[in-house]
Amino acid sequence: MCKLIASLLFLLCAAVLLCTSGVQAAETFGAKIEPGTTECFTEMLEAGGTLGFTFRVTDGGSFDIDATLTTTAAPPTEKFLELELFHFNEHFMAQRDTVVTRTLNEWKRVSEGSHSYTSPSVTVTKHGMPEEVTVCFNNAFSTLSPKWVSFTFIKRDVLEIDPDGLNKVEAQMEKKLHDIGSILFNLTIDANRLRLEGDADRVKVDVVAKTILLGLLLNVAVIIAMAGYQYIVMSRFLGRHGQNVNLRVTTK
């Protein structure tokens, strides 16, 4: 009973830490990538936020796929005052609508992969506009086998502390919780990677079990066919041998 209560208290404390440390719950998605096609998925990331991405091929063919992770964002401005002109000045309106796409990572014929990305903060971009993080799964090299892919997005909020209040107890607690969130963020990514690996292993075990069962059924069918064939051959042989014995007895 004491162990059960201790386990419940531990889970409650872990849940509280996850909620207060800025680590959002992992969002797991699944997609079926048809042969010769490409599927893309997008997640929004606020300025200064961190995104953890993990994927794994759980079924299909040789359990491999091509993947590309990109980010699309507006270029940074030089001054904070330029933000006021984003909606009134044509030059800055064009700058607001201009986006730049960068490739964060790329995988070729792999069964799994992961990446962690932190977007530039507001002090760097000066505008604080969010970014679009896009992942594209490409199964163009396959002609027959579709691929089933499971992937997760884990987002971590930005640390927001009043610079004038760093000496306050509340600010120190928030900073401490954010530091703990860094550890929980990495642990969550590792836990999701292990979970996806377990899902893929279960699929492989099911495939192996079905293959073994099919092999056993095939062996049983072959044994039955051989037994039937031997029975027919032996019946014919014994029937002819019995006729020859009767002929010899009659002749004598």
Automatic annotation (TrEMBL):
Domain of life where this protein originates: Eukaryota
Entry annotated with the keyword Isomerase: no
Pfam families: EMP24_GP25L (PF01105)
InterPro entries per the UniProt record, alphabetical: Emp24-like, GOLD_dom, GOLD_dom_sf
Signal peptide (from-to): 1-25
GO cellular component: endomembrane system; membrane
Keyword annotations of the record: Membrane, Signal, Transmembrane, Transmembrane helix
Identification of the protein by name: GOLD domain-containing protein
Record domain GOLD: where: 38-155
Subcellular location: Endomembrane system; Membrane
Membrane spanning residue stretches: 212-232
Protein topology in the membrane: Single-pass membrane protein; Single-pass type I membrane protein
Family: Belongs to the EMP24/GP25L family.
